[in-house]
Amino acid sequence: MPDVKHFDPDATLDTVVRLFWRQGVASTGIQDIVNATGLNRSSLYATYGGKQELYRAALERYVQNRSRPTLNRLEEDDRGLPAINDFFTALIEMRCTGEYAQWGCMVSNAHAGTENNDLQVRALLDRQHQRLRDALHSALRSAQRRQQLAEGVDPGSAADILALVAHGVNLRSRAGADAQQLQATAAAAITAVTRGQ
After folding, report:
1. Domain that holds residue 143
2. Helix 51-62 crosses helix 30-37 at what angle (to 10 degrees)?
């Protein structure tokens, strides 16, 4: 007779996403996960595997539910620079206010933590960074078509820089940086990379 699960694995994974996102992997033990989900260890292990497998699943869920929709919107927005400005404004607001203030981004947090020692996690982080860079590149190409960029500005190089600025916003917001200062920094970076020398 098959083992019947008496819990919702998706809802449990969403709870674990929030736990890892807020606390990080190094600060989260199995007992923390048991306490947050209300499940016993054997159910967790049987369903997800060990802590590292659970973390990988949580990171994938975060990318699917939070990062991917945001980057899809940016990539599909053909307004050029206004789309990039709106992306950074929304990013800073999300990171500095509301329920998830000072949690940072689970992806950026993983770039800065020991999580990236796991080759599968590192591969996901590399894919996600490329996805961020590609979405910014797409918006910058739209800006170029709309003649919003200075002559000679390379959208690829500008996208590389703005992707790093986005990671910086995520990490600085986790440390409690001021939203207005982050917004001013992002605006200065956008101006610097789109007006050229």
Report:
1. 62-195
2. 60
